[in-house]
Fold each of these.
Amino acid sequence: MHSQEELLDFIKNGHKQYLPHVSIDPVIFGYSDQKLKILLLKWKGLEGWGLPGGYIKREEPISQAANRILEERTGLKNVFLQQFYTFGDSHYRTHEQSLKEITQEQGEDILKGSWLFERTLSISYFSLVDHSKVNVTTDFFTYDYHWFGIDEIPELLFEQNEVVDKALTTLRLQLYHQPIGSNLLPEKFTLPEIHSLYETILDKKLDQRNFLRKMMTLGIIKKLDEQRSIGAHRSPFLYQFEKENYEEALKQGIIHAN
Amino acid sequence: MHSQEELLDFIKNGHKQYLPHVSIDPVIFGYSDQKLKILLLKWKGLEGWGLPGGYIKREEPISQAANRILEERTGLKNVFLQQFYTFGDSHYRTHEQSLKEITQEQGEDILKGSWLFERTLSISYFSLVDHSKVNVTTDFFTYDYHWFGIDEIPELLFEQNEVVDKALTTLRLQLYHQPIGSNLLPEKFTLPEIHSLYETILDKKLDQRNFLRKMMTLGIIKKLDEQRSIGAHRSPFLYQFEKENYEEALKQGIIHAN
């Protein structure tokens, strides 16, 4: 947790360290036990739920900022994290109410003209992590967290339901074109394992045989000459992601546009 | 053109009207005579080429800002314009050299601490227009323009070649999933017309029969019970975009993810 002193310094002087007017707000999807969830933090003062977020340091490349913020909130490094949209139409974050609550004892003087009350555009990323491996850390403005199933997301602060919806749409659209699931499966996995992951993310049944054909045709996975022994008469073949293949394909635009 | 007075006011006071630290930089693709081009402006002082751009007004929704900037540069309204990425890794625009040149007579005092020297993230959009209909207007920092063929783009200022490359990749990836070409064709068009547009954008030959089948399967276009008479024995059938169809499909994520 942060001290009150740190918080007051952040309110008064944060803009010397961070760029004002832009925040990074990752939508963190968690997959575990065949369920897709999303990480939300509970805000002080506002008593509602919102996405974890953070600011970009003045000299920090934004992709580095996004990775840093994800690590600060979840403890995870090197996971799939992708920018998908910058929101700035109806999406105005203001910390005013929350800060009034937090700084009650200090009176309101300290809040006057704080950079945190300025209009803030939100550069949004999404990530997909194994949520059983996550250690969540709240930030200055939040005091609790919860992994919500994607079918039970409450009304969010700062009109962030729009952000979550677009993240989910993008995740599903890109599922066949990016190694999105690669950090949720063992390096070598069985067909049922990846099949179940895809069914969960897309929230629908996929015929296993068609699914396999599609994955092989797209060149996303390859079958190994190796089996996993899971019983006397059961030793399914193992598969592996073919990262290079579809990174190349994506670059050349041949996956969609052929 | 802008007066020197306006320019000096923009340098000194622009941040009162516009958000600092973020600009909108549209990659404007022009299609005409079966050629795909891109609009570049020539910068004062820097003597190089760069994308047209602009800033977001303090209370202006960013999609509105993007449309305004496109209209200011091209005179066009209601054309396809889509956000595709926010650059902020290596992409630091600075107006310093350019401004020194422009404000030579004023000395350098006026430039001190100007908001235009601050690090600026670039929210990038792409657009596709009929470039024969465009009236280009340069901005404060530029004095000439040219439509470059996409195979003859020079090295750009502010590392913007990366922006152009990503715009082109995105345009090609989304060509079958969005009504991207709809403002480049007559409302009712022939198969050769749309076929030629797609071949130009993708920069490759497409078998006409397969192309038609794909467009019909995706539900992007529909065949009308109507022909265009273009000669004694030539009256090709007409087609029309099915906007609603694939907007719906895109929303549900069924175009890619089935």
Amino acid sequence: MAMDAAAEVDHLAAERAAARFDVEEMKVAWAGSRHAVDVADRMARLVASDPVFRKDNRTMLSRKDLFKDTLRKAAHAWRRIVELRLTEEEANLLRLYVDQPGYVDLHWGMFVPAIKGQGTEEQQQKWLPLAYKFQIIGCYAQTELGHGSNVQGLETTATFDPKTDEFVIHSPTLTSSKWWPGGLGKASTHAVVYARLITEGKDYGIHGFIVQLRSLVDHSPLPGVTLGDIGGKFGSGAYNSMDNGVLQFDHVRIPRDQMLMRLSQVTREGKYVHSDVPKQLLYGTMVFVRQSIVADASKALSRAVCIAVRYSAIRKQFGSQDGGPETQVLNYKTQQSRLFPLLASAYAFRFVGDWLNWLYTDVTQKLEAKDFSTLQEAHACTAGLKAVTTSVTAVARILMKTVSQLASGKQPVGTMAYMGKVQYLMQCKCAVNTAEDWLNPVAIQEAFEARALRMVVNCAQNVSQASSQEEGFYERSPDLLEAAVAHIQLIIVTKFIEKVQQDIPGDGVKEQLQNLCNVYALYILHKHLGDFLATGCITPKQGALANEQVRPNAVALVDAFNHTDHYLGSVLGRYDGNVYPALYEEAWKDPLNETVVPEGYHEYLRPLLKQQLKLSSRL
Amino acid sequence: MAMDAAAEVDHLAAERAAARFDVEEMKVAWAGSRHAVDVADRMARLVASDPVFRKDNRTMLSRKDLFKDTLRKAAHAWRRIVELRLTEEEANLLRLYVDQPGYVDLHWGMFVPAIKGQGTEEQQQKWLPLAYKFQIIGCYAQTELGHGSNVQGLETTATFDPKTDEFVIHSPTLTSSKWWPGGLGKASTHAVVYARLITEGKDYGIHGFIVQLRSLVDHSPLPGVTLGDIGGKFGSGAYNSMDNGVLQFDHVRIPRDQMLMRLSQVTREGKYVHSDVPKQLLYGTMVFVRQSIVADASKALSRAVCIAVRYSAIRKQFGSQDGGPETQVLNYKTQQSRLFPLLASAYAFRFVGDWLNWLYTDVTQKLEAKDFSTLQEAHACTAGLKAVTTSVTAVARILMKTVSQLASGKQPVGTMAYMGKVQYLMQCKCAVNTAEDWLNPVAIQEAFEARALRMVVNCAQNVSQASSQEEGFYERSPDLLEAAVAHIQLIIVTKFIEKVQQDIPGDGVKEQLQNLCNVYALYILHKHLGDFLATGCITPKQGALANEQVRPNAVALVDAFNHTDHYLGSVLGRYDGNVYPALYEEAWKDPLNETVVPEGYHEYLRPLLKQQLKLSSRL
């Protein structure tokens, strides 16, 4: 049940009746467990039924009113979390369903984890209780006006002053202004600030510092701290509820013990020393953040595809015979070939996200036992899956490295294990002869493996011909990027196939997932046909597969995401499909409709129509 | 000179100095003539220097204030046009540079052309002078809540009443509400309304009617007319300046002579009669509208790519050696492989747009001589180039038809002429052996021809195997779409090659255009490598070309678009490249920065921080 209220109409009832699987069990497969479905359902309803959390007016609010509304919702959410004694799992879900980006996201998602990951035991004991009770609000001040992904290029300085046992935090240039951190502009009282640590005249690179920004008495910026919001972002509503901020320091002093000292310390005398905690631990945090991004991407895609599939089932266009009803847009093959691969991708990303979550836990446990063997692969795979181009190099490098070690007989493991079959994969011919053969997961997986391996080997050969490895990487970076993408797509397909090979209860649920897995794999195959053909692993004749299996189940497959109408926030994606009356009603709520004759008529329209515009050489 | 004011800094000076061609001559090649450059320059400066036309605050205005600002700018633009006695060419450019969508766009772009194209001589003499002087404001009311592209599905009725010699305009259902027309919501006094003509009890399908909507005395909606704005659109600013509207009729009566009667009439007695004017004339208008859309697409792309190239030259990231400066983002191959094909596309679309413009003139002249021979092709090509999927079928159909006629020995003409070489193209092997060979326009054109033809022939064979042609079209629609796209891309490449083969003055200008033509063609070739390989016209070894020729000229190539900073409206794309100080200054203008402590602090942040949130079971 994903409806907000008892629906009196269901324009999609026929679609739902035609579905060939058990939707309730598919919800379980999507959410991970029955418990996960139930708790999400409970939190979604709690939010949807609370008038404070309404969001249908969000696009009509001015930036100031939208921000104030965000503060109000955050306070109300916290009140409900306390009153109802919600668990951490419940509280996280409640915030998810409030669905309005704000300072709390950074407080819980970046400030607290940074202290947990990089603070000493004492620092955690001092700061975490304050953060847990919201006695302070924290954000994460890393990026600068002139520096984003390249953290080592940050310019903010933290210079140790042994006379007072303090660090002096300073912004030496305009481009060193902190720029973009969420929650910084207006809400946060504290930040973890990343700056170049300078002591005894030497620059030790980027470290984190806990810095108080605003007075806890009246919220005004502390002396030497300049704070502001960086202005509106593209899009109606959405991220404009967040106070992404700008921050400059003019020689702001903080006690020495506000440097996050888990990995390295500055002593009372100003000596820089490393602790014996391995610095690879920092990568663990990045792996965590990236796996959340993959999970978020799946959530966002599932919402978009839910709206698109439902509306495509409601919307009719062309195809009328003799004045009869027009054809549902969802019945057009061209629409199916666009939508169904995205529907399949939502499920594919969901399952690879589950695997990443497992990978993170596994890496963390190994790290604690000082086993770094899987860290590099986890780092590369999560970076690739996050698909941040600058970091994709990490994937490409590990692929190049693995290939170069094959000759020495070193057997690759984990997601690179397939490279061990190099002899076979480099010369295998695809056994697919008919379209139906593509429904065989073994054939799919082998085609993806052969394509990825051949692209990787080809890159490695080209890179090795360059005058230096760095030069080779630079010259071949677009090819390396494509090889890395091929590897990542192999991982996604593999994890989906693995999921489908498990026991999955519910009538028809497993069959639907198998079919979606095929749709995803064949979509990628079609989209990158050039790669598959160019590496010779398949021939031109092996092609296309119909989306026919998906069509009758499409609406039910998006129902299985279990999104409430409140969470979707879309008139077009309503559960009951009653789109047109709702669209019509919504339109009248625009402030422009408050008056029949618009403001400006008397000044600008009437004089024009009456040919009474005053002419002057200059206004 | 594209600067708004004398620049004191030019952070892009080194880029400009490195360019290997004459930028002033490239401006001529882009604009079409020296005259076109000069008049555009004059109008752009007129707008940029007028404080009424400022637009930097646009994203911060509420919807109501933005709309009022649009009315103000439209009135001021009209005042300037009258005062300065601007020509039609100048007035159109002035409106382009005002760069704020509003009712005038529909008045001049749709209302006036509809009356010109579909009105009789008498109707034109009555209505056009009123429109030309803005004594009335008109819009174009076609789409309905339930009906977009499928014009034949519209539900609004215009029923002739012989008793009073009037048409009764009526909206019989909710889905028949007019929905989306620009200028309708708040500004227009009149509309060309499309409705089903019913007379003597018979439905004669969709016809146009001039209907007055609002009082010319006080702008209030006339009796029986319900009018409103359909609400905010996605994006900050931009199309929210337009009053896209909703309109319902409750038995509104208009005189019979307000039916647009050039193609058909209803007599005083209610008889429906056709005039002897060929109805193909209607297609002429569609060809005109579509060629403007292609031209607009090129303009929009040129602005986006101008901003992206300039900022990529300013922005530095990674690649620092020993603490030296970081690398310009524009130097990364991955960035080049994204940006340069778009830069090349802006030029490619520009030149194919010029050709479409010629095609429109040619078709119009032929139509007046009752020669319909080229109309179908023009209709299909413009539809394809407009890339509206629903209409792309038109392209696919003409391709299928042309192929099927080959056997009968009928020689295809126009853009389909290459199909006459079917014997050769179906079995030719690409002569390209090295990357450099791809710089030969003959090789490029042949590869595109072979690919398009083989896809078309393949589709035709598959369609012919279906039980009926309609069934075949339905089943194969995704393939047909791809074949049509291949044909359209062939046209774009061909027109670019033809342009480059002309005499083009200016040092290095022709060479740059040749190079951009190659970049565009090879980008398409790489992107759709699967098609090229699958049809066997090229082999896997023939691949990749560097973007090296573009790099030193990139900034100058976007300078040649001659966009003012006002028109670009982008801090990141400033002509002088002085991005960071400007970005910093802009941020402070956000209304959220009016106060240091945000509104809502006392209600929602302070109680949270002070642990004084009032708990209650319900707010």
